[in-house]
Amino acid sequence: MSSGFFKDIQKVTYKGPDSKDPLSFRFYDPDRMVMGKRMADHLRFAVAYWHSFAWPGSDPFGGQTFDRPWFRGDDMEHAKLKAEVAFELFTLLGVPFFTFHDRDIAPEGKTLAESNRNVREIADIFAKKIDETGVRLLWGTANLFSNRRFMAGAATNPDPDLFIYAAAQVKNVLEITHELGGENYVLWGGREGYETLLNTDMGRELDQLGRFLTMVVEHKNKIGFKGQILIEPKPKEPTKHQYDFDVASIYGMLQRYGLENEVKTNLEQNHAILAGHSFQHEIHLANALGLFGSLDINRGDDLLGWDTDQFAMNVPEMTLAFYEILKAGGFTSGGMNFDAKIRRQSIDPEDLLYAHVGSMDAIARGLEGAAKMLEEGDLKSFVDERYSGWDSGIGQEILKGEKSLDDLAKYVEEKNLDPQPKSGRQEYLESMVNRYS
């Protein structure tokens, strides 16, 4: 039975590049084969519960602009209505996955036990909806940042009682994610950082965070959850400095606590930009370090310095992102989660569909461009040639530890070595990439 929220809107289907229907796919054809795999299986789209159904349209200077029927009461009946509408959207879009925070799907109770019961009650509805629709859970996560109790962090809080409370909250959502067949579990440390070092002991807080992550991994193994544990990098906002700053800092932290083979990353374009990197950089580095897991797909505003979470519409950027993903073999348990908000002036139900459809098309174009780049191989050939000296001879001997500084100094003398720089041909390569975007 329909909630009536989307009125008479029909399921979005592929109609081809010439379609003028804004509620049709022009480039995203789920069954189209790309490099031997269905487009849908490459992209693994997921709708984010929080931005699409829990965000009221507020910003730092203005309140709610969205008039959603489930916003009219913070109780379980309205939470059930929201779940009904959510699965209607998932079905209209034909996405294979969704994602959620515990606080998105159910109201917080007077105690953690009551809050957890509320979450579990909605999760029972999810289980039925998953069976009915075939839309699966990409990942679940716990909101350890919105409530005032977490103003000084969760795992990194100076008060061990807050650490304990957060751990109990995560336990509940991790177990529910497992029961719902979720393919990953995400930890985003929105408050795991500091505002001032005058009241902060970073060494203590990092050790607390390392212990928290270890406990999550231990519990995952205890309950038999086969999904991937993910950390989401973000450098700042809301805190002045967050410990999960970027891929490089997360790798260092995981190595310190012996978790580099247990935890991977859930990367986001907007967070990469706030850290001073490109999206391509973070994906490339995560693959190089063995940390690539999943993506929150959105974009930031180049003129604003905070996390605007706009829908990804930049085809060249998506092409470069997918070039890195395909080069490394594609997603395993991860996917592309629409951690994106429609703008606060986009107030109609149709706007939720326009945003997702447009972004899915842009990403599909990026996938096809990236696949052509790899299949034609010109970019890869250039890079391979540029580093070819390290593939054999003395280059390999150096990397294998077979040469000392004395050996290399002698080599220069014997060969009368006088190496000259070679062009990196950046503009040539940028022009090459434009052929595929």
TrEMBL record:
GO terms for biological process: D-xylose metabolic process. One of its GO terms (molecular function) is xylose isomerase activity. Keywords: Carbohydrate metabolism, Cytoplasm, Isomerase, Magnesium, Metal-binding, Xylose metabolism. Its cofactor is Mg(2+). The keyword Metal-binding applies. PANTHER family: PTHR48408, XYLOSE ISOMERASE (PTHR48408:SF1). This is Xylose isomerase. It comes from Faunimonas pinastri. The gene is xylA.
